[in-house]
C-alpha cells in the first residue's frame, strides 16, 4: 500500500475535541469536533507528515517521466512538482484539507460504529485542472515572473467524483463494506453547499466511481500491499458489488462555529440528513469546526 501513516490518538483528541451529541435516527449519525488551537503544537509535525503523505502519489504522477535515476532533481528548477501544492490557490488547498480530514477521521475515529476502516490511497492525482495550472505556475517562476496563488484568477474547479473511499475487510481480506466520502471545507458555513454535498452523495451509485480510479492508481505500485488492494478491488468490481454494502460519509470542515453554541452545536442537522439526501442508506456526518482554518492550511501545505 502506498500510504500507511497514522497520527497519535491522544494529541489528536486533544486538538479535535468531540462534542456531546445524541442521535435518534438509526440510519443517520452526526459527530462534531471543535478545534482547541492551543493543543495543536503537540500534533503539528505528525499532521503535516500525514497531509503530505496523502499527496505523495500526486507528486509521483506529476514527476513521471521526468526523473533521472542517477540524479533525481538535484536542481529544484527541474522538478515539475516543486511548487505542488504550496503555490496552488487557497480554495484548492482547503479542498485537499477537507478530503484529508475525511480520511483521517474515518481511520482514527471510525465510522458507522466501526473502527476498522482503511483508506488505501487518496485520489489527488486525478485533479488534472490543477496539474495543467501547475505547468503555468512553474513557467512563471522559471521566467522570474510574479505569482500570487490566492488571486481570484488562480482559482480552478475542484476534482469531480468521489472525494475519498474507505473500506472494511473480513478475516480473509475481502471487502465487505464501502464508505463513499464527500468532503467540503469552507471558511464560513454555507447552507447551499451543505445541500449540494448531500445531493451528491444521494446521486452516488452502488459502485462508486472512485473504485476504478483506485484500481488505476494502485496498479502503478508493485509492492505486495498495493497489489493485494488491486486484487480485492478488481474482485469487487467484477462481482458487480453484490456482496458489499455501500454507505455514505459527509465530512464538513468549516472555519466558524454557530453563534449560539449552547442551543446549536453544529451547522449540519443533528437528527436527520438534509432533505436533498433522498436515498435509503446509512449516512455518517462529520463536522470539524476549525477557527484557525487559514493557519492550518498554511501550516500543512505552505510550510508556515
List keywords for this structure.
globular, 15% strand, 304 residues, alpha/beta, single chain, 8 helices, 6-stranded mixed beta sheet
What does this entry look like structurally?
With 304 residues, the protein is of the alpha/beta class. The chain is globular, with a radius of gyration of 19 Å. The protein has helices at residues 9-15, 44-63, 90-109, 128-142, 191-202, 210-218, 224-238, 293-301, and strands spanning 16-18, 28-35, 164-169, 175-186, 245-254, 283-289. The chain starts with 8 loop residues before the first helix and ends with a helix. The protein is 35% helix and 15% strand. A six-stranded mixed β-sheet has the order 1-2-6-5-4-3. The model has no long low-confidence stretch (mean pLDDT 93). A hairpin with a 5-residue loop joins strand 3 (164-169) and strand 4.
Amino acid at each position: 500500500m502506498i500510504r500507511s501513516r497514522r497520527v497519535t490518538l491522544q494529541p489528536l483528541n486533544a486538538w479535535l475535541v468531540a462534542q456531546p451529541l445524541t442521535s435518534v435516527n438509526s440510519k443517520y449519525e452526526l459527530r462534531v469536533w471543535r478545534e482547541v488551537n492551543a493543543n495543536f503544537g503537540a500534533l503539528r509535525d505528525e499532521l503535516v507528515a500525514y497531509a503530505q503523505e496523502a499527496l505523495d502519489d500526486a507528486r509521483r504522477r506529476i514527476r513521471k517521466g521526468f526523473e533521472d535515476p542517477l540524479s533525481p532533481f538535484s536542481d529544484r528548477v527541474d522538478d515539475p512538482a516543486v511548487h505542488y501544492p504550496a503555490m496552488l490557490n487557497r480554495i484548492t488547498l482547503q479542498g485537499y484539507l477537507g478530503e484529508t480530514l475525511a480520511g483521517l477521521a474515518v481511520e482514527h475515529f471510525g465510522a458507522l460504529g466501526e473502527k476498522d476502516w482503511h483508506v488505501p490511497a487518496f485520489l489527488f492525482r486525478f485533479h488534472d485542472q490543477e496539474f495543467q495550472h501547475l505547468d503555468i505556475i512553474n513557467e512563471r517562476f522559471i521566467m522570474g515572473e510574479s505569482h500570487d496563488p490566492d488571486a481570484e484568477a488562480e482559482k480552478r474547479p475542484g476534482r469531480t467524483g468521489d472525494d475519498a473511499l474507505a473500506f472494511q475487510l473480513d478475516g480473509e481480506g475481502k471487502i465487505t463494506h464501502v464508505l463513499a466520502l464527500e468532503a467540503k471545507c469552507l471558511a464560513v458555513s454555507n447552507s447551499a453547499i451543505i445541500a449540494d454535498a448531500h445531493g451528491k452523495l444521494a446521486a452516488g451509485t452502488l459502485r462508486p466511481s472512485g473504485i476504478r480510479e483506485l484500481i488505476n492508481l494502485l496498479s502503478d505500485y508493485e509492492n505486495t500491499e498495493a497489489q493485494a488492494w488491486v486484487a480485492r478491488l478488481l474482485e469487487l468490481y467484477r462481482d458487480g458489488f453484490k456482496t458489499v454494502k455501500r454507505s455514505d460519509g459527509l465530512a464538513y470542515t468549516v472555519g466558524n462555529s454557530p453563534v449560539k453554541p449552547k442551543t446549536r452545536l453544529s451547522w449540519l442537522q443533528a437528527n436527520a440528513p438534509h432533505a436533498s439526501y433522498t436515498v435509503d442508506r446509512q449516512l455518517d456526518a462529520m463536522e470539524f469546526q476549525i477557527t484557525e482554518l487559514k493557519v492550518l492550511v498554511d501550516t500543512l501545505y505552505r510550510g508556515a
